[in-house]
Write a structure and sequence with these properties.
single chain; alpha+beta; 3-stranded mixed beta sheet; globular
């Protein structure tokens, strides 16, 4: 069976916070140009992810329902400006009793707002919205962000087009 991997960048939430604009009352906004986005990439990361349902479904949104996985070992870069992972380790596991940690947590929470964050992976600025995370991502304090134009069709695919109300 071929090994398919995807180029997905991992960003540091701590580095992203250096670019936060605004204040605690109104929330913080994140608008990063290509140079700033590059500085937020986690240097120790391979920026490669093995194939999974989320990445395959994202490729189907981009390339159509007839998308087929390659038949040989491949690194696919099509998603490198569509999905990114944000590493929030050492942010929410700190006591907010210290003002420094409380401010960092407020900034991090602002990334989850419906306005999302603006990043530029070299193809121009795009808005990214907080998306899903797996159990292993939760354990590693990671969250995926998806480009705004892909968010809704991907969410519908992942949710099997079901509308879930209050439980």
């Amino acid at each position: 069976m071929p090994q398919v991997r995807y180029k997905i960048y991992s960003l540091s939430a701590s580095a992203l916070m250096a670019y936060a604009q605004g204040g605690a009352e109104s929330g913080y906004a994140f608008t990063l140009n290509a140079k700033a986005t590059e500085k937020c990439k986690v240097l120790s990361s391979l920026h490669e992810q093995q194939d999974c349902a989320l990445l395959f479904q994202t490729m189907c949104v981009l390339r159509g329902d007839n998308y087929q996985l390659p038949m040989e070992d491949t690194l696919i870069s099509d998603l490198s400006d569509v999905i990114c992972y944000v590493d929030s380790s050492n942010i929410f596991d700190r006591s907010a009793a210290q003002n420094r940690h409380a401010v960092r947590q407020k900034k991090a929470e602002s990334m989850f707002r419906p306005e999302g964050i603006v990043l530029d992976f070299g193809t121009g600025p795009c808005r990214y919205l907080a998306f899903e995370r797996s159990n292993s991502m939760s354990c590693k304090a990671q969250l995926s962000f998806v480009r705004e134009d892909i968010y809704e069709p991907l969410r519908r695919r992942i949710m099997l087009d079901m509308k879930i109300g209050s439980c």
